[in-house]
Amino acid sequence: MPNVMIRKKDDGGLLFYVAKKDMEETIASVETDTSDAWGGSVELTDGSRWYIDPVSPPPSFPTTLRFKRADS
């Protein structure tokens, strides 16, 4: 379960960065993105999927969270 840094881009999108893999991708979709919770299945623009139990209340960005790779 790598630590992932998530930060907002200038256009309002979210960047997903894994330092140990030097991987940076834009988040395409998040399963739960409400005023009460954020997380679940996260899909990146490269097609990979990651998972985090929904966080409540939603985090403010930038933040670092622990994700796991979702099964394909």
Automatic annotation (TrEMBL):
GO BP of this protein: nitrogen fixation
SUPFAM superfamilies for the chain: NifT/FixU-like
Alphabetized InterPro entries for the sequence: NifT, NifT/FixU_barrel-like_dom_sf
Pfam families the UniProt entry points to: NifT
Entry protein name: Nitrogen fixation protein NifT
Taxonomy of the source species: Bacteria, Pseudomonadati, Pseudomonadota, Gammaproteobacteria, Chromatiales
Top-level taxon: Bacteria
